[in-house]
Design goal:
- The chain is α+β, with helices and mostly antiparallel strands.
- It has five helices and four strands; from the N terminus they run H-H-E-E-E-E-H-H-H.
- The chain has a four-stranded antiparallel sheet with strand order 2-1-3-4.
């Protein structure tokens, strides 16, 4: 990312090394955050000062502020051991960070898998009832039909007995008295 500086500030006639260019820009340009200090300048200082620059890694064993190896995810053990490497905040080392992120990631994946299984099982049940449920519903319907048939048969038998003995219930119970 190149920074276009105004014409009078750019020394075109003098060839400079990268370090000289950076020091010249820091001295002449009012925005120091565009060109942060090198991490090695914070060696033997404090962890907090080192980690103000997000591209730095603090090694607690030798109190060194190192450039974070951006080509790798984790810093190599030749640079600094994981238990003494700090990045971002001084109170969390990489070992604890890896363990914590692994546990949290595993829990999230497990919860996601459980939710997917639960959703799939619900869809399966709602779409297609089980064979046992269908069989139970069929048996209930058959029992209901048989019960209605028995009830109708018993009613007809009782009506025959009532007719035989003159106890048949008429539509209007007072009709008997009007005929006399």
């Amino acid at each position: 990312m190149g920074l276009a500086l105004p014409w009078p500030l750019v020394p075109e006639t003098v060839p400079m090394s990268q370090r000289a260019w950076a020091s010249w820009v820091r001295a002449t340009h009012p925005l120091p955050l565009l060109f942060p200090e090198a991490c090695s300048q914070n060696t033997n200082r404090s962890c907090e000062e080192c980690l103000k620059n997000v591209s730095c890694l603090w090694c607690n064993t030798n109190k060194a502020c190192l450039d974070y190896p951006v080509t790798r995810i984790l810093p190599p053990s030749s640079l600094c051991t994981l238990s003494s490497a700090r990045w971002g905040v001084c109170w969390v080392n990489f070992e604890a960070l890896i363990i914590t992120l692994s546990v949290v990631g595993g829990a999230v994946l497990l919860a996601l898998a459980a939710c997917c299984c639960a959703c799939c099982c619900r869809r399966k049940r709602s779409r297609k009832p089980d064979k046992e449920e269908e069989k139970a519903a069929r048996e209930r319907e058959e029992r209901r039909v048989r019960q209605e048939e028995r009830r109708a048969e018993m009613k007809s038998r009782h009506d025959e007995i009532r007719k035989k003995y003159g106890l048949f219930k008429e539509e209007n119970p007072y009709a008997r008295f009007e005929n006399n």
